[in-house]
TrEMBL record:
Native source organism of the sequence: Halosimplex aquaticum
Family statement drawn from the similarity comment of this UniProt entry: Belongs to the acyl-CoA dehydrogenase family.
Lineage per the UniProt record: Archaea, Methanobacteriati, Methanobacteriota, Stenosarchaea group, Halobacteria
EC number, UniProt record: 1.3.8.6
Any Pfam family: Acyl-CoA_dh_M
Superkingdom classification of source: Archaea
Official protein name in the record: glutaryl-CoA dehydrogenase (ETF)
C-alpha cells in the first residue's frame, strides 16, 4: 500500500488499530459488492449499524457514547472508508460531522442525551439540511423560515431543502432556517424528527455520481417543532459553517483514500497487463503516470496529516481546511482519471474501482463547497478582499 514517506512510522498504536479496523471492514464488507450497489443506485444499508457498532460515527467527539480518539485517527478512518467508496465515507461524514458534531457542540443536554447514543451506534440516522433549490453555494440567502407557533412555545417551519444525503432514510433532520421571530432573522438549527406532520423527504433519482449513496429533498409545510428542538447555543451562519469545517476536514482525508485506491488498481493492472510482449508497466509513459500519481497522493496525504496536528492543538483555521479540501479533491480527480486511462477498456467497468471513484469525485468536487468557492475563500484569505459580494 502506497506510503512513500513512511507516515506509518509516526502512528500511535490506537491510530494503527483504527486504520486497520477500517481497512479490514472495507475489504470484507464494502469491496465485495460496492460495484453492484453503484450500478443499482443503492446504499448497502446493512452497513449503517455495523459502522455504528465499530464506532465509526464521530469517534473524535468527547462524549460517553463515542470513542474520543484523536483527529489523526479520525482522518485515517475517513481515508480508509473512502478508499472503499465515497458513499460510505459520506454516510460517516454526515452522521458524525454534520449531525452529531452540532448536537454535541451547540445542543442542550437533553438533545445530546436523546440523540447522540442512537446516532453513535447507528440505530438512528441523521441528515443535514442546508442547501436549497435556489441557494447552494450561498446558503446565507436561504428561504426556509421558522416562525413562532400560535402557542408561543414552538416554531412552524416552511421551505425546502435539496441534495440532502440520507434524507429519505433519516430519523432526524437538522434543518437550518431563518428565525423570523428574532431581530435580523438569524439562521438557527432545528432538529426535526422525520415522523412529524408537515415534513416529507423524497428520493432524488438519476444520479450518475455517488450512486451508492442515498440523496433526497426535504419539504417543510407548516411543520411544527417544539422550542426544545432548537439548538440553543448557536445563532447565525457560524452554526452550519462550523459543521462544514468538520466535514471538509474528513473529506480532505477521504480524497486521499480514494486516490490511493485508484493508484493501487493502476499499479497492479500495469504490472499484470501485457502488450507488445511484456507488462505495460515497463513503458516509460506508464511509469511517468505512476510517478506523478504517487507524488501527488503523497503531497495530499502530508497536507492531511498536518491539518490533523493543527486541529488537535486547536489551531486549525477554516481557510486551511479549504486549501486541503480543494487540493486533495483535485488530486483525487486527476489520479482517478489517469488510473482509469491506464486500465484501458476494462477501466470503464465496475469490475475495477477507478471509474466508480472518478464518477464519485465529481460530487465531492461540488459538495461541501465547490472547488470555485474554496478558491475564493483562499483568495479572500490571501488578499483580504472578498469576491463574494
Ligand atoms: P461569512 O460572512 O464569511 O461568515 C459568517 C460567520 O461564519 C464564520 N465562518 C465559519 N466558521 C466556521 N467554519 C467556516 N468554514 C466558516 N466560514 C465562515 C465567520 O467567521 C462568521 O462568524 P461571525 O461570528 O463573524 O458571525 O459567511 P457567508 O455566509 O458570507 O459564507 C461565505 C461562503 C460562500 C464561504 C459560505 O457560504 C460557503 O462555504 N458556501 C459553500 C456552501 C457549502 O459548502 N454547502 C455545503 C452544504 S452541506 C454538504 O454539501 C454536505 S455533503 C456531505 C456528504 O454527503 O458527505
Ligand atoms: P451552485 O451554487 O448553483 O453553483 C453552480 C456553479 O456556479 C458551480 O460551478 C459553482 O462553483 C459556481 N459558482 C457559484 N457561485 C460562484 C461564485 N461566487 N464565483 C464563481 N463561481 C461560482 N447539501 C446539504 O445541505 N446537505 C447534504 O447532505 C448534501 N449532500 C449532497 C450530496 C450530493 C450527491 C450532492 C451532489 C450535493 C449535496 N449537497 C448537500 C449540496 C451541495 O453542497 C451543493 O450542491 C453545493 O454546495 C453547490 O451548490 P449548487 O449545486 O446549488 O451549485
Amino acid at each position: 500500500m502506497l506510503d512513500y514517506v513512511d507516515l506509518e512510522a509516526d502512528l500511535s498504536e490506537e491510530e494503527r488499530l483504527i486504520r486497520d479496523t477500517a481497512r479490514e471492514f472495507v475489504d470484507e464488507e464494502v469491496r465485495p459488492d460496492i460495484g453492484d450497489h453503484f450500478e443499482a443506485g443503492t446504499f448497502p444499508e446493512g452497513l449503517i449499524t455495523e459502522m455504528g457498532e465499530l464506532g465509526f460515527y464521530a469517534p473524535n467527539l468527547d462524549h460517553e457514547s463515542t470513542a474520543n480518539v484523536g483527529e489523526r485517527a479520525y482522518g485515517l478512518l475517513m481515508q480508509e472508508l473512502e478508499a472503499g467508496d465515497s458513499g460510505v465515507r459520506s454516510m460517516a461524514s454526515v452522521q458524525g460531522a454534520l449531525v452529531m458534531y452540532p448536537i454535541h457542540a451547540f445542543g442542550s443536554e437533553a438533545q445530546r442525551e436523546r440523540w447522540l447514543p442512537d446516532l453513535a451506534d447507528g440505530s438512528a440516522v441523521g441528515c443535514f439540511g442546508l442547501t436549497e433549490p435556489d441557494h447552494g453555494s450561498n446558503p446565507s440567502a436561504m428561504e426556509t423560515r421558522a416562525e413562532r407557533a400560535d402557542d408561543g412555545g414552538g416554531y412552524v417551519l416552511n421551505g425546502s431543502k435539496t441534495w440532502i444525503t440520507n434524507a429519505p432514510i433519516a430519523d432526524v433532520a437538522l434543518v437550518w432556517a431563518k428565525d423570523r421571530s428574532a431581530e435580523g432573522s438569524p439562521v438557527r438549527g432545528f432538529l426535526v424528527e422525520t415522523d412529524r406532520d408537515g415534513i416529507e423527504t423524497n428520493h432524488i433519482d438519476g444520479k450518475l455520481s455517488m450512486r451508492a449513496s442515498i440523496t433526497g429533498e426535504i419539504s417543510l409545510a407548516d411543520c411544527y417543532v417544539p422550542a426544545e428542538n432548537v439548538l440553543p447555543d448557536v445563532s447565525g451562519m457560524k452554526g452550519p459553517l462550523s459543521c462544514l469545517t468538520q466535514a471538509r476536514f474528513g473529506i480532505a482525508w477521504g480524497a486521499v483514500g480514494a486516490a490511493r485506491d485508484c493508484f493501487e488498481a493502476a499499479r497492479e493492472y500495469a504490472t499484470d497487463r501485457e502488450q507488445f510482449g511484456g507488462p505495460i508497466a515497463r513503458f516509460q509513459l506508464q511509469q511517468e503516470k505512476l510517478a506523478d500519481m504517487a507524488t501527488d497522493i503523497t503531497t495530499a496525504q502530508s497536507l492531511a496529516y498536518r491539518l490533523a496536528d493543527l486541529k488537535e492543538r486547536g489551531d486549525l483555521r477554516p481557510q486551511q481546511v479549504s486549501m486541503a479540501k480543494r487540493n486533495n479533491v483535485r488530486t483525487c480527480r486527476e489520479v482517478a482519471r489517469t488510473a482509469r486511462e491506464m486500465l484501458g477498456g476494462n477501466g470503464i467497468t465496475t469490475d475495477y474501482s477507478p471509474m466508480r471513484h472518478l464518477a464519485n469525485v465529481e460530487t465531492v468536487y461540488t459538495y461541501e463547497g465547490t472547488d470555485d468557492i474554496h478558491t475564493l475563500i483562499l483568495g479572500e484569505d490571501l488578499t483580504g478582499i472578498a469576491a463574494f459580494e
